[in-house]
């Protein structure tokens, strides 16, 4: 309760006091029952002698019915106040703890983050908080109530030792003999549970980290078969729209932002997956410029830009760095020619420094050699022009509607989850045995009522002893077996949901509701919720067949509200994941406070809803407890009416009501699980909806043709738009042909569709119109896993996983020898660096490869592609993060690696693709011109202008 306010302490104190009182008054039920039993026993004796005074008997029965009714009202009032206070206190504290947890994480340094796993941190934020909520919420009320009942019951027992009940205190002492045994058992089980919980938390944290990592890098998983108003969100909050637009204009981003369907209000998706690499880079530059900093740090700021954009942005950066200190890191040397001082490093030491002209004057110097290595040859040759034909607008719209129809057919809605849970559990034979023991356990209380009813005749304690032994055996057996079944079910459910997530195509992950934080939060917190209801389900269905209608109505209302609450909590969950995943960017912009405030604002609405839901849950639990006592009043009053009309006897009424009494006790015990049950139904609905989601492109399917492939690629009149921006066509009649063994390079401005072509070849998406084919086979007819097994991708932003270097290189392969791994590493110019590490190939690279530099990560990604020996090699800016020296060596390695293979290359650094067999210039989603380097230079068209700008 550190940092708790006066209101929190007031709610806590109120909850503690009223919970204890609520438990303490429950034993008075026994006192009332004693009086009622005495009345009925005496009535039965007089009835058998025909001496029953019905009026006196009726008066006594109605008196005790009134006491039952009064006790029920007291339990309702006191129970509601107790539960409502604890629920409110719990939600208020959890809301604050979550915010403080995020703030504590955000203030850590990079050393700490390098030792952590993003998924584990977010998992603690979700399921970890749920565990705390269980401990200080309704469970605390149950513990305090049990303590109150213990004290109240024993006090009442000693109190009744007065007068004619002088043996009662001795009986009370006999009953207290079991207390030390129970306390010892509780302490032992508590330690065992604590140890198991720590191990469980560690295991689930590791699993959550893995899930977070895999979902965040899902396109890499797919590729290897391993399955902008926001622009100033981290800038100055006081900026006007004009300031933001000016920064975008300077960064050459204003044009493409205005062309987006929602302009500056376009949601760019988690990790900005809706934007090309160049577009993301320009937004990042605008974000830096809008702050008007005194010190500007540029780490490969234009590496992802095409030549045209780079030229414009470089001018903007030259202007922006006037009157401010600027440190620029660049591998593309044309971007730093005008620097006041250029410092050349080699193996951690400064080897040269000076202006561009001074360093170029040093014959045989390191810098001069780098510049010459990046120079682009100029030759002469004829060129050809191939502009994609325009498709009829009506045809494109029909394709869009067809895609939407297919998507609607495969999407499903949340249905009642109960039968799904039953179907899942029926896969475990142990569940059947557990169910039998549960049925036998359910017979305990009816048998007890029959034996207890024989008090009218004779009391034999041996029956109670036998019943106690049987109850202990059945309770232990059903509890342990259902516990084991629940754990297995939880594991199976988690794996099934995760497996189905891995099946989804790229459009599923483009949906903002399917961000990494949301999906991993469901895996972390929803599965334990469903597991909790598994223990409650047999009791709900076989011990208490039906409870009263009010509770059912409240349950349905809470279920409805709970679904709305989960939807409103998505934004807060996403902010947490983004904050932890992008810590370096946030700390560089000094926006930890901003992200904290953003989270608090997003969590406010779910917090308010949770408070209201807590009040309804408190009412439901209080109604359940009071219902048991009020039920006695009604039942005995009805029994009196039967006796007065001579339709029954006191003995029969007593025995029947005792049977109902035990059933009512089951209702009261089951009511303690009611909040968990509501959460479980909601979580089960979410989890099973995720499991039922059927992708348009099943990434784990083995269906389809598997012909021997050579590696020819063809796009015929392809039209395409991303599912989240269907009105914006990225490809508009793209025609492209790549023959087996050819190297074809795609160049053009950012957003012209180059990376989209690779995504269609990888079959992350299907085209709206036209065909994408491999060796004349429509790619949709081929086995998707077979196609990807014959491809390898090196992306612009390499995704490495938190495993060893060896495991990253052989990622997606079942078998791979050490010699093959080392050979691929040598080709990628990374072997020597790996061998210099203490653990060599067993070195863990950290989350997203955080322990490696950008160039090192890229070279490991290249090795990962080479080791697969693919028929088709896809390179999306594969050398963009490398320095000039490494780039030259890796380029030579790639030249060797692509011999005999089809190679599709995307490059902004034109020096890397001048030896390509065919260079295709893209503009507005079409092929504008193509040919060899010499042919395009001779034409002096678009490509010629790009080269001229890059050589300046």
CATH fold naming of the largest domain = ABC transporter transmembrane region fold
User: According to CATH, what is the class of the largest domain?
Assistant: Mainly Alpha
Shape: elongated
User: What is the topology, as strand order, of the major beta sheet?
Assistant: 10-11-12-7-13-14
Strand % is 5-15%
On the 0-100 scale, what is the average pLDDT? 72
Question: How many domains, as an integer?
Answer: 3
Oligomer: single chain
Biggest sheet layout:
6 strands, mixed
Low-confidence stretches: 227-235, 378-416, 534-560
**C-alpha Rg, in Å?**
36 Å
Number of E-state strands: 14
CATH superfamily of the largest domain: ABC transporter type 1, transmembrane domain
Helix content: 55-70%
- Class by SSE composition: alpha/beta
Span of the ends, CA to CA: 65 Å
Number of helices: 37
CATH architectural designation of the largest domain: Up-down Bundle
Keywords:
952 residues, Rossmann fold, ABC-type xenobiotic transporter, 37 helices, 8% strand, ABC transporter transmembrane region fold
Q: Would you kindly provide a brief summary of this structure?
A:
With 952 residues, this protein is of the alpha/beta class.
Give structural notes.
With 952 residues, the protein is α/β, with parallel strands linked by helices. It folds into three domains: 6-215 and 410-692, ABC transporter type 1, transmembrane domain (ABC transporter transmembrane region fold, Up-down Bundle), CATH 1.20.1560; 229-267 and 270-339, Rossmann fold, CATH 3.40.50; 710-951, Rossmann fold. Helices cover 62% and strands 8% of the residues. The protein contains 37 helices and 14 strands. The strands form four sheets. Strands 10-11-12-7-13-14 form a six-stranded mixed β-sheet, sandwiched between helices. Strands 6-5-8-9 form a four-stranded antiparallel β-sheet. Strands 1-2 form a two-stranded parallel ribbon. α1 (6-25) runs antiparallel to α3 (54-106), α23 (549-568) runs antiparallel to α26 and α24 packs antiparallel against α26. It is elongated and about 125 Å long. The model is unreliable at 227-235, 378-416 and 534-560 (pLDDT under 50). Residues 138-372, 713-949 form the ABC transporter domain. It is an enzyme of class 7 (translocase). Belongs to the ABC transporter superfamily. ABCB family. Multidrug resistance exporter (TC 3.A.1.201) subfamily. Keywords: ATP-binding, Glycoprotein, Membrane, Nucleotide-binding, Repeat, Translocase, Transmembrane, Transmembrane helix, Transport. It is found in: Membrane.
């Amino acid at each position: 309760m550190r940092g708790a306010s006066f209101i929190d302490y007031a709610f806590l104190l109120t909850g503690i006091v009223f919970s204890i009182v609520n438990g303490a008054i429950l034993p008075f039920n026994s006192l009332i029952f004693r009086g009622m039993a005495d009345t009925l026993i005496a009535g039965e004796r007089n009835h058998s002698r025909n001496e029953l005074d019905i009026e006196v008997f009726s008066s006594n029965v109605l008196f005790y019915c009134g006491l039952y009714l009064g006790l029920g009202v007291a339990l309702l009032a006191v129970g509601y106040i107790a539960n409502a206070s604890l629920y409110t206190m719990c939600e208020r504290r959890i809301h604050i703890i979550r915010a403080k947890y995020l703030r504590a994480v955000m203030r850590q340094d990079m050393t700490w983050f390098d030792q952590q796993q993003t998924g584990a941190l977010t998992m603690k934020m979700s399921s970890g908080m749920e565990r705390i909520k269980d401990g200080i919420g309704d469970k605390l009320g149950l513990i305090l109530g049990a303590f109150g009942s213990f004290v109240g019951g024993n006090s009442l027992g000693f109190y009744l030792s007065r007068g004619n009940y002088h043996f009662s205190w001795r009986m009370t002492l006999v009953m207290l003999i079991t207390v030390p045994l129970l306390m010892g058992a509780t302490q032992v089980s508590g330690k065992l549970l604590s140890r198991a919980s720590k191990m469980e938390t560690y295991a689930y944290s590791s699993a959550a980290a893995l899930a977070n990592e895999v979902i965040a890098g899902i396109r890499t998983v797919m590729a290897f078969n391993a399955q902008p108003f926001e622009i100033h969100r981290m800038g100055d909050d006081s900026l006007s729209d004009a300031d933001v637009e000016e920064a975008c204009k300077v960064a050459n981003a204003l044009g493409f932002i205005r062309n987006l369907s929602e302009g500056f209000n376009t949601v760019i998706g988690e990790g900005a997956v809706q934007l090309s690499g160049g577009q993301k880079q320009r937004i990042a530059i605008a974000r830096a410029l809008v702050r008007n900093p005194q010190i500007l740090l540029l780490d490969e700021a234009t590496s992802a830009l095409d030549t045209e954009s780079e030229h414009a942005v470089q001018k903007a950066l030259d202007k922006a760095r006037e009157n401010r200190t600027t440190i620029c890191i660049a591998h593309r040397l044309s971007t730093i020619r005008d620097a006041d001082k250029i410092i050349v490093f080699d193996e951690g030491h400064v080897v040269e420094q000076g202006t561009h002209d001074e360093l170029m004057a040093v014959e045989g110097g390191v810098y001069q050699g780098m510049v010459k290595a990046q120079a682009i040859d100029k030759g002469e040759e004829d060129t050809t022009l191939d502009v994609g034909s325009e498709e009829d607008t009506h045809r494109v719209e029909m394709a869009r509607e067809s895609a939407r129809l297919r998507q609607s057919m495969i999407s499903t809605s949340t249905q009642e989850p109960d039968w799904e849970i039953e179907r899942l559990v029926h896969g475990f034979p142990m569940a059947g045995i557990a169910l039998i023991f549960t049925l036998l356990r359910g017979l305990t209380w009816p048998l007890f009522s029959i034996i207890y009813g024989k008090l009218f005749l004779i009391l034999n304690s041996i029956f109670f002893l036998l019943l106690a032994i049987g109850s202990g055996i059945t309770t232990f057996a059903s509890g342990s077996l259902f516990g084991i079944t629940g754990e297995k079910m939880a594991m199976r459910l988690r794996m099934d949901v995760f497996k189905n997530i891995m099946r989804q195509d790229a459009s599923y992950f483009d949906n903002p509701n399917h961000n990494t934080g949301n999906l991993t939060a469901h895996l972390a917190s929803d599965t334990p919720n469903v597991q909790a209801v598994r223990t409650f389900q047999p009791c709900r269905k076989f011990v208490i067949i039906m409870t009263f209608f009010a509770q059912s109505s409240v349950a349905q209302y809470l279920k409805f509200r709970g679904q709305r609450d989960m939807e409103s909590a998505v934004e807060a969950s996403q902010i947490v994941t983004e904050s932890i995943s992008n810590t370096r960017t946030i700390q560089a912009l000094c926006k930890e406070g901003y992200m904290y405030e953003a989270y608090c604002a997003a969590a406010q609405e779910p917090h308010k809803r949770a408070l209201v839901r807590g009040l309804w849950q408190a009412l439901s639990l209080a109604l359940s407890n009071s219902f048991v006592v009020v039920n006695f009043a009604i039942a005995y009053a009805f029994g009196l009416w039967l006796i007065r009309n001579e339709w029954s006897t006191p003995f029969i009424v007593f025995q029947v009501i005792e049977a109902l009494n035990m059933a009512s006790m089951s209702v009261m015990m089951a009511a303690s699980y009611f909040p968990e049950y509501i959460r479980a139904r909601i979580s089960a609905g979410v989890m099973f909806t995720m499991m039922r989601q059927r992708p348009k492109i099943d990434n784990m399917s083995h269906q389809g043709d598997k012909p021997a492939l050579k590696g020819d690629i063809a796009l015929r009149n392809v039209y395409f738009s991303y599912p989240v921006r269907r009105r914006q066509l990225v490809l508009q009649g793209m025609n492209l042909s790549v023959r087996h063994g050819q190297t074809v390079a795609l160049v053009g401005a950012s957003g012209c569709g180059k990376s989209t072509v690779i995504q269609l070849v990888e079959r992350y998406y299907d085209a709206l119109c036209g065909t994408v084919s491999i060796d004349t086979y429509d790619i949709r007819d081929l086995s998707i896993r077979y196609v990807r097994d014959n491809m390898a991708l090196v992306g612009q932003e390499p995704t490495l996983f938190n495993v060893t270097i060896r495991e990253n290189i052989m990622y997606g392969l079942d078998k791979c020898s050490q010699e093959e791994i080392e050979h691929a590493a040598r080709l990628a110019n990374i072997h020597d660096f790996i061998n210099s590490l203490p653990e060599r190939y067993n070195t863990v690279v950290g989350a997203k490869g955080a322990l490696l530099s950008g160039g090192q990560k890229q070279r490991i990604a290249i090795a990962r592609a080479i080791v697969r020996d693919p028929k088709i090699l896809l390179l999306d800016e594969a050398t963009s993060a490398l320095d000039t020296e490494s780039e030259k060596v890796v380029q030579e390695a790639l030249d060797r690696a692509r011999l005999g293979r089809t190679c599709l290359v995307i490059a902004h650094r034109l020096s890397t693709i001048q030896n390509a067999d065919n260079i295709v210039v893209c503009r507005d989603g079409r092929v504008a011109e193509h040919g060899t380097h010499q042919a395009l230079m001779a034409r002096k068209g678009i490509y010629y202008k790009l080269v001229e700008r890059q050589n300046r």
